[in-house]
Amino acid sequence: FAFSVFAAVSSVGRGVDLAFDQPAKHGDAHSTRIQGRVAVIDGRTLWFARRGVSVRLADIDSCELPQWSFDPKATAPKDRTLAPVPCGALAKAWLKRTVGSAAVTCQLTADIYSDATVGVCQVKGQDLGFEMLRVGWARLITPFPGNSRYFEAQRYAVAARYGMWATYVLDMAEWRRKAIDRTIGRPPLADLNLLGERQSEISPPFSDARRQPPRRDR
Question: Which helix (H) or strand (E) holds 4?
């Protein structure tokens, strides 16, 4: 009887909107499942508050929240520099819009390269990683994604110049290595300077610029 009461209390404490299996140990090949309402931290990270679990969307990356990209077809009115695009904030906004108030289900696995918890997450049957790639606010970070449709989604977004693919954007890994100020108030000029010393070019506008003639006044 005592065991039955304890089990019932434990079940109520977890809440009706959350299901959680024992997390996989680091490097464990078996996935586990977590389900519930989430807070969106950035364009690739979800926070399951009731369990204190942060989940990174598998196989993708997105701009960090303070990161800026730049519109090659527009200039800022004050100083005539390239118009800044808050790619990190827009990535978060799109993921938040997609999730809404619905419960999210993630199949979790341990990241063999770090202690992060990653997962393939869905809301109302919609793969969140696929959605972020489709609209161009995320990019693949592996040549072997778990879902082969991710390649199709990214190719579609690049060809259509959706999201960050329409901008000059610094590779996220390079941004993390070089950006000193990572506060939300980071000025766009800081990222414009980083673009000037970039080591990699991941978005199509860089190639477009190289194809332009050096003089346009003739």
Answer: helix 2-14
Q: Which helix (H) or strand (E) holds 178?
A: helix 172-178
- 51 with 34: CB under 8 angstroms? yes
Q: Secondary structure of 80-142 in the HEC alphabet? A: CCEEEECHHHHHHHHHHHHHCCCCEEEEEEECCCCCCEEEEEEECCEEHHHHHHHCCCCEECC
CB neighbours (10 Å) of residue 202?
17
Q: Which helix (H) or strand (E) holds 154?
A: helix 149-160
Collapsed DSSP state (helix, strand, coil) of residue 9: helix
| Model pTM score | 0.81
Q: Which amino acid is at 127?
A: D
- pLDDT tens-digit map of 114-152: 567 999 999 999 999 999 999 999 999 999 998 999 999
Low-confidence ranges of the chain (pLDDT < 50): 1-30, 217-218
Please give the single-letter amino acid code of residue 91: A
